[in-house]
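Notes continue from the previous slide.

Worked example: a multi-chain complex. Inputs as given:
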Amino acid sequence: MSDDIQDLVERLPLLGDAVLVTLLMTVGGALLAVVIAVLLGFGSRTQTLWVRGPSRVVVEFFRGTSLVVQLFWLFYVLPVFGFKMEALAVAIVALGLNYGAYASEVVRGSIASVPQGQWEAATALNMTWFHKVRRVIFPQAWALMIPMLANLLIQLLKGSALAYYITLQDVNFWTVELRRATADTFFSYTAGLIVYFIIAYLLTWGMNILEERAKRRLGRGTRPTLRETFGLKPASNPRLANTAGAPAGGGGA
Amino acid sequence: MTNTSGDVPAIEFRDVDKRFGDNVVLDGLNFSVPQGQRVTLIGPSGSGKTTILRLLMTLEELSGGLILIDGDPYTHEYKGEKWVAVPEKRRRVVRNRVGMVFQQFNLFPNMTVLENIIESPVHVLGKSKADAIADAERLLEKVGMSEKRDFNTNQLSGGQQQRVAIARALAMDPEILLLDEVTSALDPEIVADVLDVLREIAETTDITMLLVTHEMQFAREVSDRVLMFDKGQIVEEADPETMFTNPTHDRTKEFLKAVLGG
């Protein structure tokens, strides 16, 4: 066991690189997924058939095929057609498309649950479609979609472990290397579990902060922010002062 | 483009049809509202009153006919013989003259009271933020909501939300204000506050108003003309005094008896 620890300590600098690769894939994939989700989510809602049709097809295709196969296809098959990408880029694109397809359903559902009256009031104030979405509808839908997007983000992180199979030296790769060095399967894979768990935990924590912020903007915040908790001054903004103590009118939990 | 001379009506419906599937709500409706007139639409539910307001706000599409605002084609027009939709870009120019207050207030919960009011004056009308805020503060004063300027909308009671919604609609400086059962979702003791605000607006501005309401006393006070609707048709129209004390049509008599309990 002490040998194992010795090997682990020796490999800690490599862990930094591995975590960086995993984080690059996760964050890059997530950003791409959000863009795709918003485009496809709105695309699936439009009346225009030539937008809605392709949007639905793309969503169903990427939800309906395996992530490993997509990775292999982009990495090994696409170059046959003369289109070659870096392994990291392939991973980001595959993760972005795959999870973007899932997330587009989240976006679509959240947009649909913003009351129709909000669209109508925005029309009565003569906003353009884009203005309505950007300033009225999306900020409200965003608060609804964050918890579900947080789930998908964690799944995306774990899905990124598959990128080891297209030569990326991520946390999964580091775990395998550790096992090779120690010849201790239990020890090395347990170390891998812990590293993934810590990353996932930090991501969850970040998403909770986003969720809290979005809810507060809708006046539904239930907890004080970190800054308020540790700050010396009580909240001075009247919007926050009244919601902090009083039981929020539903939707807070 | 705007024609504001007295003889062009603010609102004109020409042979307007509205169908939802097989359900015919309006069938060849014709009526007009002169500039500055206050018109109340009464009638049983399902008679098409709210549909008229929603068509005027372009929340519903016409099935046939024309709506003219100050004589300008609004949602559809005839090109030769063909009945075609007016492109959104031109609709927006005309829509700027129309404002609406809803039964359910529909304030934007992601904005404060002030932000709700200045959003469109700044981003649609292109006012400077400072001007928009100054106007908003004046309007909040008018509706008695100055202290709530920086509150979140869900910290307000229904009556307060509705007063903010009225200020928000007025901030766009509409020529025509549509009021769709604006007190129906409010507790009875709050209704009076909102009606007071509307009464003051009616007295101090020359905005053309089209209202659907069950507040018959209020309708009587503020309107110049009352239209009684049934099954998408105007069955009777008169000044409020005549309509409420001496209606001629049987359908109106029945309806008023039912709502006034007299």
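Summary box: The first helix of chain A runs from residue 2 to 10. Chain A has eleven helices and no strands.
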